[in-house]
Design a protein that fits this description.
Strand 3 (61-71) and strand 4 form a beta hairpin. The longest helix has 11 residues, at 10-20. The radius of gyration is 15 Å and the shape is globular. It has one domain (2-166): Aminopeptidase (3-Layer(aba) Sandwich), CATH 3.40.630.30. Strands 1-2-3-4-5-7-6 form a 7-stranded mixed β-sheet, sandwiched between helices. It is α+β, with helices and mostly antiparallel strands. Helices cover 37% and strands 26% of the residues.
């Protein structure tokens, strides 16, 4: 079952993010890595800035979470994580499909460039790289992440985003 996460599930969301982020160890640049991957204060700040978390409930526990956030003229998919013990069961795809259905706006996603599995996940679901010459400015405009993370990340967008660009 996919549902909006409850305020009382903050600790569970935090645990899922940091469990799943183990996959980034040795993949993202060492100067960007930290432990834990996301602190509780960072998670609180993300929620305060409008990220709405949705979860995939399996049995009596959340198996994965994914955030959605409207920023300016697009919707961002943020912090998509599935518990290590629940990977490769289609949970991420179901969450993404659900969140895509919640908006008519163009959708953008940012992820680490060297996280090939994450990039492939989004490409298999129709997302494409934004033009290389625009990537940095888009990451600055919509995400507000540090310069080093911009340098080591990619941005992908859905067909609606590309269509909106054609209509400009």
């Amino acid at each position: 079952m996919i549902r909006r996460c409850r305020d009382t599930e903050f600790e569970v969301i935090h645990a899922i993010i940091n469990d799943a982020a183990i996959a980034y160890q040795g993949v993202i640049p060492a100067d960007c890595a930290k432990e834990p991957y996301m602190s509780k204060d960072e998670l609180r700040q993300e929620i305060t800035h409008g990220i709405e978390f949705w979860g995939f409930e399996q049995g009596t526990e959340l198996a994965g979470v994914m955030g959605i956030q409207d920023v300016l003229d697009v919707t961002l998919i943020r912090h998509a994580y599935v518990r290590t013990s629940h990977r490769n069961q289609g949970i991420g795809g179901k969450l993404l499909s659900h969140l895509r259905g919640r908006t008519e706006r163009p959708i953008m996603i940012g992820t680490w460039a060297d996280a090939s599995w994450a990039v492939r996940f989004y490409q298999q679901r129709g997302f494409r790289f934004v033009p290389a010459e625009e990537k940095d400015s888009l990451l600055k405009k919509y995400w507000g992440i540090p310069q080093r993370q911009i340098e080591t990340s990619v941005a992908l967008a859905d067909q609606r985003w590309f269509e909106s660009r054609e209509n400009e």
